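Entry 14. Structure prediction run on the chain below.
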Amino acid sequence: MTHTRLTVFLTTSVLIATGVVGTTSARAADDFPGTEASAAAPVKVDPNDPDLKLPDGATLAQAKVLDIKSVVEDQSGDERREDTNTSVTFALQAEVLFGKDSAKLGAEAKSRIAGIAEEIKTQNATRVRVFGFTDNLGSSAHGDVLSKQRANAVHDILTESLNDAGITYEVRGYGEQYPIADNSTEAGRKKNRRVEVSFPRTES
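Output returned:
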C-alpha cells in the first residue's frame, strides 16, 4: 500500500523557575534550514542582561521532554496511524469498514482489523480501547447507537484475532462527539465517521 507520510516531531523542553518560564523547540534540521547545531544565533545575546538572570534564590526545575507524535496516513486518507512516546492509535474511516448506516464488517475490513491485532501483539498490550464516532448528520441518539455498534463489531474481530483473555478492552460509542475535521463539508464528515483503536506502546 502506498503511504503519504505526514510526520510531526514535537520535542519540547520546558524550564520553570520562580517567575521565569523558558521554552525551546527542536525540529528536524532538514525541514527547517538554519536550525542545525552549527547554525549561528540570529540575534546576539548578552549573557549579562539582567532579564536573562534568575532572581536570587530561584532555581530551575528539571527539564522535561514532552510527547513526540508521528502521524502516517495512507494516500486515500482511509487509514491513519498515530504513534507517540506512550501509545499507538489506528483510525479507520467507517466507509472502509461498513456499509452505509450499517455495523456489519466485510472481509477486507476484517483483514485490516486483523493487521491491527498483530500490532497489538507486537506491543504486548494488555489494555485496548475501541471507540466509534460518527458525523453530525441525523439524530444524535442514532449516532450514539451506531457508533457503539460499530465499535462492538471491531472489538469482536480483535478478540477473535488475539484470542487472549489477558487483554482488557474499553469499548465506547461517542456518536458525533470529538470530531477531527469540519462537519460542514463531506470530506470532513467522512473523516469524522471512524473507529479508533488505541493501546499503550511497549515500555523501553
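The longest strand covers residues 11-17.
Filed with the rest of this week's runs.
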